[in-house]
Amino acid sequence: MVTDRRLDEVGKRLRGPLDALPTGSPEHSAALAEYRDVLTGLRNRPGGFWIAGPDPRAAEHALTGTVPLESLASVTLLSDGATRLVDRFQLADWRQILAVLDFFGPDELIRRVREAEAGDPDGRRWPRGKARDDATVLHWVLP
Predict the structure, then answer these.
(1) Torsions phi, psi of 60, nearest 5?
(2) Contact 43, 51 (CB under 8 A)
(3) What residues have CB less than 8 Å from 108, skipping those under 6 apart?
């Protein structure tokens, strides 16, 4: 598995004040705006993190890896909003996520993410910038 944790590492250094506040509160909104301003200064820069959307040259800094094709059963790509069950909420591990995808598909994974988000709308259990995040899942089962 290849996972880019650079944004997570930057975020951990900066999120303390933000995570202490209820999601959606005026104080949280102000802290979130400040946090985003700092992140903007670290985007697509050495020592920060890389996002290809605003600058395709960021792809030059992508983390890559190779594995033998015959060793794969599937290929899965998840946005950070779709990985919340594992990396933010810690309600599942990666094997469980793959089992959900294999047996029920992406819709079920996103449904579970939405259910967890709805169960903590103020971000008290799981501090986060947004009560709900966009979630994208591509799961390709290989023949």
Answers:
(1) -65, -15
(2) yes
(3) 100, 101
What torsion, rounded to 10 degrees, do the Cα atoms 100, 104, 108, 113 define? Answer: 0
Secondary structure letter of residue 94 according to DSSP: H
- What gap in Å lies between CA 60 and CA 67, rounded to an integer? 20
Q: Where are the domains of the chain?
A: 1-65, 66-143
Q: Which among 27, 31, 21 is positioned nearest to 123, based on CA atoms? A: 21
Percent pLDDT > 70 in the chain is 99
- Tokens representing 74 are 């599937």
Instruction: Name every residue whose Cβ is closer than 8 Å to that of residue 17 and which is 6 or more positions away in sequence.
Output: 31, 35
Report d(CA 124, CA 24) in Å as an integer: 11
Place of tokens 């909420």: 89
pLDDT tens digits for range 75-121: 999 998 999 999 999 999 999 999 999 999 999 999 999 999 999 99
d(CA 63, CA 65): 7
Report d(CA 34, CA 11) in Å as an integer.
12
Rounded CA gap, 92 and 106, in Å? 15
Q: Are the beta carbons of 7 and 49 closer than 8 angstroms?
A: yes
